[in-house]
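To close the chapter, one final illustration. This time we ask the reader to focus less on the individual chains and more on the assembly as a whole: which components sit near each other, and how the overall shape emerges from the parts.
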Amino acid sequence: MDPEIKRSVRQLFVKFLLFQAVIFVAAVALSLVFTGYFKARLGRQLAAASRDSLLAGDARHVITTMPSSMSRDFTGMVWRPAGQEKGFSVPAGAENSSGMFYTYSRMGVCFDEDRKVPAGELFFYYPRWTPVSWGVLSWLVIALLSLPVALRERRRLIRDYTLLLDLRIKESYSALAAQVAHDIRSPLAALDSALADFSSVPEDRRELARGALGRIGEIARDLLENYRVPGAPAPAAKAVAAHDLKALVAPVIAEKRAQYSSRAGLAIEFSGEDGVRARVHPAELRRMVSNLVNNAVEALDGPGRVSVSLSRGGSVVTLKISDDGKGIPPEILSKLGQKGATHGKAGGTGLGLYHARSCAESWGGSLNITSRPGAGTEVAIELPEAVPQAAPKNAVLIDDDALVRINWKTAARVHGVELLVFSAPADFLAAAGGVPKDTPVYIDSNLGNGIRGEEIAVQLKELGFTDICLETGHAPEKFSAINWLKVAGKEPPWA
Amino acid sequence: MKLRMILPALLAGAALYSAFAILKAPSRELKVLMDSSNPPSVYDPVSLGYTRDYFFSENLFSPLTGYSSGNELVSELAEKFEWAGGEAVFTMRPGLKTAGGRSIDAFDAEQSLKRAFVLGGTSYSFLGRMLCGRGSLKSLQDPCPGLEVRDGGRRLVMKFDGPKPFLFHLLTNIAYAVVPRGSVDPATLKITDYRNTSGPYYLDADLGLGDMVLKGNPAHYRYSKKMPRQVRIVSLKKYNTNEESLATLSSGTADYLTIGLVLKPEDKADFAAAHPGYSVHFTRPVRMIYIVFTDRGLKRLSREERFYIASKLRALYPSRRRMNESPYQLFAMEGALSKAQLEDIRARLTGGPDMVIKKRVEARRLYSYFWLDLDEIKKWLPGIAYADTAPLKDRKNPPKPDFFLLGSDIGYQDDIGLVLYYLGLEFFDLSPEGKEKWLAAYVACPGKKERMAMLRELHYKTLAGARAIPIGLMPYASIAREPWEFNYPAAIAGDHLWRLRRK
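The assembled structure is written out below.
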């Protein structure tokens, strides 16, 4: 156990003991006080009941009636008349009760109505230690009742402390992840842009490098997402947009071929039509294809073939990953795609297929698995086809980050978009008069120096611009107060 | 502003305030209506009969012991009362003085007892014989060896053969009040001086025809600045109805009606409810009304007829008295019947057949209690005769009654006091010799339990023989105009004016 937790538990134990000590003293003291009080009250009643007989000299009456009156409340009674040596006691010898074991309630009896002339005193004896035992018993009951509470507090303390430690660790991870992600993104964007000019490098190698860079970027985003500071707002929803699937899948296949190049007899084939588009999240699609290819390769015991095809029919786009491996028994097949269900992989978590099915369904499609034992398995992902949209001719970017601006410029050049780039909103506002009002304007949500992108967006809206979009890493809900404002990621929209 | 400029205004204000306070302050005088025009000389603690006798004695004289407002045995003139073996030792309060400044000591207490033994009847003879021997005292000079004054008058000692637990209770009775020696004529033993009394009040002025002025004795231990310091006794010069007596409150003639006037407690309660500014004190139901059949009645009427007469009167009595209870026994506490005995008496009083008693039956005080029901009574007792309303000249030698009705206080008394009171009446089914014998055996019983058993048997014999049968039971009530409020004991009937407190 952590020493700090041990110390806290020890402190809790000491507090518990102190509390019990206080309760013990209070219980014993209250028992003594209340017993004394009630014995005195009872004694007063008995004294009042026997007073007239005592004063009238009817000791016989008192002696015969007192035992039943005292019942179990008192062990004896002694009457000592004022100024006289000899009184009497009930039972005889009660006055010799040991002070060690017995105490008494003392009642004065007076002759007169004003209680000024004493006639004598009555002593009602009762066991001295009985109230203490009652006090101890009361304390024991309280202690027994409070013990589960103390144990529960101990458990809570340990749990809270563990949670606190976890939180601290997570916070430090978050800080580290944020730092890494932040520091890695700009160089990645620069590298990505630079790759476009590396004409001497073969195209397939460049694509491979670009794909690897993309994956590193995704890792950086995942770091941010998975280790975000507890309580921090969730990142922007993963942007789903229409993409050319072949452009997304081909680099993954190239990567897989490179990955498994050392495996003899393994062929990874890819065939796909151009211009097959669907609304997907690129990174998720790449991860999905990567996982499914991995699964297919692992289903092959030796040499074999993995085929990836991309086709369209009607309004549906179909991505198939098939292998000629050992296949999956029917009883397993029906469970695959559920969380935790796996087959044929030592240490498999079943998350790959589950992720693929979840993604496909979230994009409005479906995932189907067909398999024949000994003949192979085919995973077919069907997605609604997206009608391609023409890229705008002109666009405006306002961003204070130089790397972002370079990245966007490169992407614009590739897609034939004439992009006007501004580092500060004032520069654009100065030139805004010559820009058509339907030109798409992309604004960084945080423009530095406390300038917020949404405020600039409002100004531009007032100037008449109709297509304004914030490029941000925040969730779109953050800007939901401005209902006409579009929200997108930091990536160029034409990628 | 200089002081001398505002001083006259301040003085005038203080004077006005004082005058206002004096005018607003309630009077220290209390006007008490009394149903008697007797002179004070008729009142004597050894001669008690009517509530007015008790009223006068209880306010002008104090006994050695008494009861508190909480019904506890407490000291009165005797500061201490203790048993030392067979001796009852009474230590007199120091500094006791009459209003005239005479000291009251144990010699006064001794003479009062001897005087009571000389003048008194059955109740005194019992204690007299115990203290003074079997021969009855004839004069104050006769020796009484059981009485001794010690320490120069500080202590009175009564000598017995052992402790008598009933004694201190017995001496609470106002009949044993102390009458200072100088206030008694040594020859006639009559009280001649009502100024030097032992009670909280003394007679300040006799205005004649029963009107008197009593004043509080500042030297008395009961004296308080909050009690009525002057009592004006306004006597009734004629017979008053209850309404007329209550009207004296409204008219301002009286501030206070004793328990003896307007005996029906409901009338006082209704008056106080209808007239704000009055307070009423009710005792517990201790006023017993009973029918007592005389020896003549026992001979002339069968037991069934006696039970029938009693049961019919019991049925009539509550009809106009909502505070009435109808008990089946005379003593509900000490001497109470066993459950079986009580059931027996209840059956006799409720289960008999209807009858018409055609004998001539002489009744005494029937009219006082049933004047509105006489026609009803005559339906089943057509031969009823009552001398109560006969012209005075015809009442000189009234015929001996077959029964009489009686109302008396059965309130808190120790058993000996209770027994002595009823033995004094023609009440228990005992001959004079039987009374003496029974009382001697009763007193000889050392334990109260045994005495109670004896009293219960006598009680049952009296009821089962239809000698005396309870008719009704109700509280006593006193009414006072505010600002006076009551601090009276609930179980004891009486008008102890020194217990009144000004609000």
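The mean pLDDT of chain B is 88. Residues 14 and 144 of chain B are 64 Å apart (CA to CA). With these observations in hand, you are ready for the problems at the end of the chapter.
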